[in-house]
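Issue: copy button drops trailing tokens. Both records pasted manually instead:
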Amino acid sequence: MQRLVSIVIPCYNNELYLGPCLDSIIGQTYENLEVIVIDDGSTDGSWDVCRKYENMDSRIKCFRQKNARVGAARNKGLDNISGQYVMFADSDDILEKNAVETAVKLLEENEADLVQWDTCFFETNDADPYQVGEKEEAEYAEIITDGPGAVEILLDSKGKGDDPRFVLLRNSCRCVWNKLFKAEIFKELRFPEGFEYEDDYIASDLFMSADKIIFFNRQLTYKRGHDTSVLRLMPLKGRFDKLECEYKRLKLVENWNKPAVMKMACHTFFVSAMNLGLACSMQGDQDSLNKLSSRIKGEYGTYKCYLDITDRLAVFLFLYFQRLFIAVYRKYRVNH
């Protein structure tokens, strides 16, 4: 007998793409689903779309709340799930027809707690909301690991992540919309609210809550890029939240006694800080830039021993020759 899979979908002002998303879910080859849509205070016609599909398919349950951002919407969804397994989708995603069936089969056959698949990213065409990208299939492969191993994959920029069979897997480790979880993982765990990059912030917690994790490189989610997507409209506050995600992982691996992993965590944290510094400068926000400088100065003294010479030089220039750093780094980012 198929176990029940709960799919949580937060939605805010996405009436154009919500229908294609829901169609791709109710058309899944795996039928034992409940679909929980949280309308996060939409001001367009998203709620009308929700009600239409709720009346169309008894597996769909829709809830409405005042706008509280994605973390709060996902938490409300989690508070209403009944399934043994849980997935998340963004309201503009489209799932491959056999996505749920494929993920459940892999999870159950391997007695795993979490599986993650690859993603097909594409630029959207508003004239055709059902459009999807062209997948790039690689030789099939799996990585089976535990929680710490998954965190290492997330941080790794030179090892398994450079294997062409897994090139996109690493980049999506921080997201929840390409994973199937045993629901018990969320028994005590929730997304931070009022925080951007809310799934990135708990990504390591999710991995560490699982004893067995499977990464596989089939593209089961189509992820569209468009001008109103959350990441393209990310405020500066969100970039500071992103830095906290990296710092949280740094503190996690600090106690593992694995210098190579600690080096990756420190590199990622300080590169994120440099990117944030550039964003502050480009927006002319000197107060935020000063705030960041003070923060980084303290962390640099503690963790510079884990940085290579290039990273040390970059952080040193940022702290003590900021104008020169910004000019050089801006030119570097434009050309890379």
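Record 2 (pasted manually too):
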Amino acid sequence: MVEMKNVSMVYESSGTEALDNVSLTINEGEFVFLVGPSGSGKTTLMKLITGEIRAKSGKVTVNDFDMRKIKRRKLPKVRRTLGIVFQDYRLIENMNVYDNVAFAMRVVGARRREIRERVPYVLELVGLEGREKRMPNELSGGEQQRVAIARALVNNPRMIVADEPTGNLDPVRSLELMLLFEKINEMGTTILVVTHEKELVNALSKRVIAIDKGRVISDGTDGYFSYEIE
């Protein structure tokens, strides 16, 4: 769960006010789109959730952790409850599909037996069975993003945060990816997708939080943008 109360964020280096008194709640098990034009505050909001930055004021709670007060050494505990998916995949080029996903488990100290059981299961879930030995450069963009999703999912996080995950994909592959996120959500994982793709959001009836100039300007469950986005 994510809860923000009266959150403001100013970047001291530039004086830019990225968020202005933002309050929102994302409940356990929800599927939420976060939309807004460039410079609206989407990236700042994501960084607050992942603990990359701290809010100037207000309260930020992520999966029961107080993100304004948490000590740096405890941030890995927060991040183990989150799975992060990036637009540019960020796969390890000299590792095959299996090892890219297994690496995420090794980092948190998982046992070999757990890795052997979990990785094939997750690869099958995202539709990559039979591609375990492929290298990233042997995969299509859509397949690479599925590896990234498998990696985010393999440690069984409470929430997946996806930052423009379809930015490098064509419309058909983008929709396939959203349907995969929907499937993962139905299994109990909270999903937050940051995107600017209006048609994609409108194709799914999910909650849409729109942000502009650092403020939440709409929050609805009808699955449609309520304003024009750049």
